[in-house]
Amino acid sequence: MSTPLRQDPPPIVSDDPARQRVEFTTCYMCACRCGIKVTLQGDQVRFIQGNPDHPVNRGVLCAKGSAGIMKQNSPAKLRNPLLRRPGTPRGAGIFDAISWQQALDLLTNRLQRIRASDPRKLAFFTGRDQMQALSSLWAQQFGTPNWAAHGGFCSVNMAAAGLYTIGYSFWEFGAPDWDRAKYFMLWGVAEDHSSNPIKIGLDKLKSRGAKFVSINPVRTGYSAIADEWVPIRPGTDGLLALAMVHVLLRRELFDSEFLVQQTNAPCLVIDQPGTAQHGLLLRNSDGRLLMLDQADGVVKPATAGVQPALFGDYEISGKRCRTVMSLLAERYSGDEYSPAAVAERCGVSAADIERLALEMATVAFEQVIELPIAWTDIHGREHDKVRGRPVAMFAMRGISAHSNGFQTCRALHLLQILLGALEGPGNFRAKAPFPRQIPWPVLPANDAANFGKPDTPLTRAPLGYPTRPEDLAVDAAGQPLRIDHAYSWSAPLAAHGAMHSVIHNAVRGDPYPIDTLLLFMANMAWNSSMNTAQTQDMLRAQHTDGSYKIPFIVVVDAFDSETVRFADLVLPDTTFLERFDAMSLLDRPISEPDMAADAIRHPILKPDRDVRPWQDVLVELAGRLKFPAFMDDSGRVKFRGYEDFIARYERSPGIGFLAGWRGASGDQSLIGEPNKNQWQAYIDNQGFFQHHWTDSQRYHRHINRDYLEAAKAAGFIGAVEPITIQIYSETLQKFRLAGEGTYAGPQPSTEDERQRLRDYFDPLPIWYPPLEQELTKSADYPFHAITQRPMMMYHSWDSQNAWLRQIVAQNHLYMNADRARELGLQDDDWVWVESHNGRIRCQMRTMTGCERNTVWTWNAVGKMAGAWGLDRKSLEATHGFLLNHLISQSLPAGANKFANSDPITGQAAWYDLKVKITKAAPGETGIWPKLEFSA
Amino acid sequence: MKLGLAIDLDTCVGCHACAVACKEWNGASLMAGGAPDYDPQGAAPSGVWFNRIRHYEVVDDGTRGGCESATRTVNVPMSCMHCEDADCVKVCPTGASYKRASDGIVLVDPDRCIGCNYCSWACPYGARELDEVAGVMRKCTLCVDRIYDQNLPEAEREPACVLACPTHARHFGDFDDPNSRVSRLSAERGSVSLMDSLGYKPVNQYLPLRAAPRVDVAAAAAKPVRDRLRTWVNKLIPI
Amino acid sequence: MKPAISVIFFTVASGAGLGLLIWLALLLLAGAPIDPRAFVRVLWVAACLVTAGLLSSTLHLANPKHAWQSFRRFGSSWLSREGVFAVLLYPATLFMVWQMPGTGLIRDLAATVVVLLAAAILLCTAMIYACLKTVPHWNNWQVRNGMPLFGLMSGGLLLLALWPLFLPDRSVRAIVVVLLLVGLALKYSYYLSYRRIGESAPTINEALKLGLEPGTGKINARVRLLDVGHAHGTFLTREFGYEVPRSRVLGLRLCALAFGFILPVALLLWLPQLIWLAAASCLGGLLVERWLFFAEARHVVRRYHGMPMT
Ligand SMILES: Nc1nc2c(c(=O)[nH]1)N[C@H]1C(S)=C(S)[C@@H](COP(=O)(O)OP(=O)(O)OC[C@H]3O[C@@H](n4cnc5c(=O)[nH]c(N)nc54)[C@H](O)[C@@H]3O)O[C@H]1N2
Ligand SMILES: Nc1nc2c(c(=O)[nH]1)N[C@H]1C(S)=C(S)[C@@H](COP(=O)(O)OP(=O)(O)OC[C@H]3O[C@@H](n4cnc5c(=O)[nH]c(N)nc54)[C@H](O)[C@@H]3O)O[C@H]1N2
Ligand code: SF4
Ligand code: SF4
Ligand code: SF4
Ligand code: SF4
Ligand code: SF4
Ligand SMILES: [Mo]
Predict the structure, then answer these.
(1) Fewest CB within 10 A of the end CB: N or C in chain B?
(2) Residue A159: its pLDDT value, please?
(3) Which ipTM value was assigned to this complex?
(4) Cα–Cα distance list, A274 to A277, A737, A739, A793 (Å)
């Protein structure tokens, strides 16, 4: 019998549009910055959808984005400022609600006192801050160098490797050309900040028949749909990449033209061991780089027409010099980089390594793209087409969460460079305001004499990019000047600070005790700390007289997180639908390769509780504390809150936080006077601004004259000059010289520090085993333990979400099925997982798509019982777990004084962890340790 | 018309965006009548979803090793297939479960439904879930309250899940029209119907995994392998 | 499938009630010597069982206020048909009782209608389950025939217990014994084929169309669930995820067979005076049988959850 049909479809009932209004703003369920179209009914969100016109997400929306409505409705929202109840211990989470007046008076007094004595004693760390340009300015004006956002525990080594090598980076500042790439290699990415664009892009690649290779120990998510999955052993990507470099070099598969025209490959490296010159690049008296012109055999600066020798070993004014390319070719064509030599270590067969390298070369050199676009290079030569070698790469924390991530990332860039596959059609391309000079010419504050001066701003913003040992923030004795030890000898290129070291160092008073720790938007008592349980103890640590080692903790959060419970003062923030925000070109904008773009949020809902936008509070505090930049000439407070500040503040004339609708009448882009109607213009234009590059400005921007001129005009770069890609990093060599004791400038005082500079600051990419892995014996701890982002959860903050927690509330430890069988383990067994730092108990599952020596779990699903407005018996608290307990703050014995971080950038080495796994005894169930707040 | 979805298993990354978008649209939609949550902040939260994503592994037991192994992780979103031969409609005693003559969409009329669950038993695909608050059966409506809504901009007259899907793995259209996107994709990719052996003739189609593209490296592999100690020849390339 | 007490009770009770009703009507038709008072008394019991069963079945409705609508799909739904026949059964039965004192065509016609309606209901109940292609453990001849058979069988035992007058009557007793033995054989064969039925259900490969050789459709790779995509139970897992603890299955099946069939047969043959015990044992056994009938039945949606079908 066939299905009975009903002829009379009932009327389509849809919402009544008359009762609704639509607002456009920017999502903040994660840091991807997608445009959203929010339909409101009264004071309720009815529906959130992707904004089809938005350059980031083009209408699509991820699971978190759609669940924004439930975050707005979360019962875990903070409702008032809170003060720890006198007499109750820190961490018990017992508070009294106070008024904003009380809260701000209290805080102002405290800050005033600190600023008037020693401003360094305020440590201000701003986590997942999308307004770092403001926070940084605020810290600078306060006079504390102790500011940073979350980059140090996120991906600074990847950001830095890019900015020190190619002038843009995998982290945030570039994107693959999804429309043209014919071969795409993805290294260690589960989600990335660009989560919607990557998904949109992968579909484009696959529907065009491009090949997509994923290098990842685990096959889920993006890797699930890869055409080829390369189950690498964690921490060995650098070796794999350099073996591919070996294959390319041995077959002479590289783009000589690219190397000559865009990189320092033809530069001459001075070979004078034992001298302060050794390993530096040959320069003339003006400091300009020299190369050997083959036309006349004379060394000269790189000017148009010079035909430099790419290879060569010369004697120049008595100095032996070899080209960068010669050094490079010699090093990587050595047998130690042959596929056969690395195969076992990487867990990838030599044949596969060779094939993958040859596949890329084949696409790069035999499937060249030519676009009929005329452009002019920096030397004034006209080109009638743009050429592309359509191999693209992208990488994230599978690379950066290892202590060798900086050099590994440089190795990936080297592969791209040899293939000539950067910034052309089909490549990994830069996003404005990048590319910038290499490194980005901004130095960190390190003016030791000025640090700690009462009521005095710093002369520079706290963070920047050191170019040589002189730029470090260390005192005469070589001791760190910052509480997080960023820019010290143990983390010289810590370009984003090292937030994960703050609590640890502050409690030990290393290098000095602090007074107040102000944390914004980071769950430092939980998932963003290593050693979670010990970190909580540190937050509670007292001197013998009963005073706290960190005297005062202020937490600015919107929700009842674990960290909130450890605060002395809690300042409740608004949600992202209730405030103004700017995603600025001065910070982390929403640019795409073909456009410079920025975006805003604006309040589309009125808060129903006594909360204030943190940025407003910052601006108000700046006024109360009388920061010079926030005062007018007559000593009156200049800005009426954040909205006003963004509209009127100029970093330099014509350059403000928002680049759209500038100029008095709002008709200027990128640069122009402040416009008092700027916010409204953004609101009227769906919350974002885009400035499209002309065709002639779109490609090869390191040497594209039209682009460089436009970038200079917009203030992105300082001069219209070629941006030379640094295969060979002189900065690294200078640090290495300091390690060797021959640097004509500051040098570390301890042998341990010198050793690290010698070992890791190689001016050419190297691979070394991740530090913790090397120090823990494989026999004792046979498994690598890593985490992945679940696509439908953002760190700790989505467990409160009524919908998302129905999808995942417990994380399991996944293990390769064959390995599990060998160990007698099976699905849903409870197991003990032990590292050199401690042990946890959790429940495991098996899978086939997992490298044999790797175990993994979802990140930050586990919660502390009592937090986040959840029932204390929630799976998150009884079955969800953090791997963080196992991750040590410091390297294991032998290297004890060094943080468990990348020795170059201080990047937290989350994924260096090695563990052993044993079956729990019968009856041993439930997670351990089980941390809970008392009821 | 034969409206339905074509879902691409080769690009679905299993992100659950479609499921949550569906939940959001229907959670407060008048037509679907809601998709409630039970004890959402409690120890065991649960709720009604019209679209769920499950994750599987296809295990190639060792015939081809290394990187080219056929082992794959496959994410499979499932919602109502709007079957042509829909037993969920036939078995419903009240006629609450019905299939529309005009476009084939299978719906539940909440004013007739007695909440007997019987239709959910008849559905092989797990597409129906009882709303325990209202006591009526709920299911995917194919966003019937979006696709015909003249108040929406034309481009948005698509199911919420289709608009949301970040990998564009979901396509909506008329399978009766051979030129529709879903028909063309299904033909090109050789689409499959899940569990069609039961004979429900599901309308929704699944686009199967594509064969991995191959890059022929013969020419590159044939290039001579240089000895490391050779001297490299410089080319004349102007800066 | 979730073993809902209300439905278990309903099918067992109304099955026995309908069986009893059929027996009564058949006695009328057969022209057995009948005391009308006794007839009505027993009929009351039958009516109560049927009614209690039907009422109990509405207990599991989430929205009983629309229950009157459930006659609309007579054309396609066995559930609807069951409802329609059940509603018709009451006037038919009343009419039969009304006509009972008399003799002749009208009464016989009324009794025939009652037999047909009651049988139809039994058949509908069976078909409600047996028509589901989604539940292979129901979609078979044992289920199609079993429910009516068990109804007649338990109804017969009730008749003998309530109306011992017929106990010495070898024909009634013999038929009940035969019904019990056939029922036993049928249920036993069902348990024997349980595993095979489960295995013949669509595989996970077929359910997902994965790991199949193009063209031939032969399975060429193992498919396994990696993650089910929900944190806690869902409607589907609550409804279809029920697992009988493996250790209990055999014991429960033996209980069902022993109490539902073997013991009643033995008692009927050798200790007919314990007819009450026989009837109670049968109903008890059938409750176990029915519980297992639900609890052991596997819905194909389990494939998507990576759950076994056997
Ligand atoms: N084991 C392991 N640990 C890791 C990682 C890993 O991969 N593995 N990843 C590391 C990385 S890369 C990162 S970035 C960190 C992330 O860790 P965190 O930076 O700690 O990130 P979240 O958990 O998102 O916590 C941010 C806090 O912001 C609060 N919040 C949310 N919205 C708002 C708002 O609008 N205003 C305010 N004021 N607060 C808000 C949330 O309530 C939460 O308390 O974790 C690190 N830790
Ligand atoms: N949904 C969601 N999106 C997010 C976040 C979130 O919490 N949820 N967090 C945001 C943040 S703060 C960040 S930093 C980004 C991070 O974005 P991702 O970098 O995508 O983050 P991870 O999940 O850490 O992914 C690391 C991947 O590398 C793999 N991996 C681990 N070790 C190695 C290795 O040695 N080699 C290789 N090749 N692979 C390896 C892991 O299996 C994993 O797939 O995501 C952002 N986006
Ligand atoms: S990726 Fe998702 S959560 Fe992140 S901004 Fe975009 S829509 Fe929002
Ligand atoms: S998928 Fe299930 S609910 Fe949808 S039409 Fe088919 S049988 Fe009915
Ligand atoms: S639950 Fe509702 S729609 Fe389903 S069969 Fe029963 S009455 Fe029909
Ligand atoms: S078509 Fe609409 S109702 Fe159906 S799954 Fe998609 S969003 Fe949900
Ligand atoms: S939104 Fe798209 S990619 Fe994500 S689970 Fe749904 S179908 Fe798959
Ligand atoms: Mo991060």
Answers:
(1) N
(2) 97
(3) 0.96
(4) 8, 9, 12, 53
The ligand minimizing its distance to the Cα of B172 is 6
Which residue in the set A4, A847, A875 is minimally distant from C226, CB to CB?
A847
Quick: pLDDT tens for A66-93.
999 999 999 999 999 999 999 999 999 9
pLDDT digits over A210-241, tens only? 999 999 999 999 999 999 999 999 999 999 99
Give the model confidence (pLDDT) of A134-180 as tens digits.
999 999 999 999 999 998 899 999 999 999 999 999 999 999 999 99
pLDDT digit string, tens, across residues B42-92: 999 999 999 999 999 999 766 544 565 668 999 999 999 999 999 999 999
The gap from C-alpha A368 to its chain's centroid, in whole angstroms, comes to 32
Report d(CA A98, CA A481) in Å as an integer: 36
B53 close to B43: Cβ distance less than 8 angstroms: no
What is the pLDDT, as a whole number, of residue B227?
A: 74
What residues contact residue A772 under an 8 Å CB cut-off, 6+ apart?
A403, A888, A891, A892, A900, A909, A912, A913, A914
Minimal CA–CA distance to B232: which of A295, A249, A257, A308? A249
Ligand 1 in reach of A337 Cβ (< 6 A): no
From residue A319, alpha-carbon distances to A33, A269, A291, A323, A736 in Å are 52, 10, 14, 13, 20
| Residues C101, B213: Cα–Cα separation, whole Å | 86
3-class SS letters over A662-723? ECCCCCECCCCCCCCCHHHHHHHCCCEEEEECCHHHCCCCCCEHHHHHHHHHCCCCCCCCCC
Which chains reach chain B with 3 or more Cβ–Cβ distances below 8 angstroms? A, C
Distance CA A280, CA C224 (A): 57
List the single residue in A with minimal CA-CA distance to B214.
A211
Closest chain A CA to residue C73: A4
Q: Would you call B78 and C67 a contact, using CB atoms and an 8 Å cutoff?
A: no
Tell me: pLDDT of A1 over 60: no
B window 39-78, beta carbon within 8 A of A: 40-47, 49, 55, 57, 59, 66-69, 71-75
Which residue in chain C has the smallest CA separation from A3? C76
Note whether B92 contacts C73, CB cutoff 8 Å.
yes
- Nearest CB among C79, C208, C209 relative to B118 is that of C79
Phi then psi for residue A760, to 5 deg, are: -110, -20
φ, ψ for residue B192, nearest 5 deg: -125, 155
pLDDT of A7 > 70? The answer is: no
Strands (DSSP E) contained in A221-303 are: 228-230, 268-270, 290-293, 298-301
Distance from CA of C55 to the nearest CA of B (A): 13
Q: Report pLDDT for A11.
A: 47
Report pTM.
0.97
How many C-beta atoms lie closer than 10 Å to residue A101's C-beta? 9
CA-proximal residue: ligand 7, atom 4 (nearest): B15
CB atoms within 10 A of CB C271: 11
Whether A860 lines ligand 1, by a CB cut-off of 6 Å, is: yes
Write out residues with Cβ below 6 Å of ligand 2.
Answer: A 30-31, 154-155, 187-193, 195, 215-218, 232, 234-235, 237, 396-398, 402, 786, 788-789, 791, 793-795, 856, 911
Chain C interface mutation, best of A223, A808, A843, highest count of C Cβ atoms under 10 Å: A808
For residue B96 and ligand 5, the question of a CB distance below 6 A is answered with yes
Instruction: Give yes or no for residue A870 having a pLDDT over 80.
Output: yes
Nearest residue by C-alpha to atom 30 in ligand 1: A521
- Return the structure tokens found at A119: 């401003």
Stretches where chain B sits below pLDDT 70 are 28-33, 61-70, 228-230
Q: Other C-beta atoms within 10 Å of C236: how many?
A: 24
Label residues B135-161 b or e (16+ Cβ within 10 Å = b). bbbbbbbbbbbbbebeebeeebbbbbb
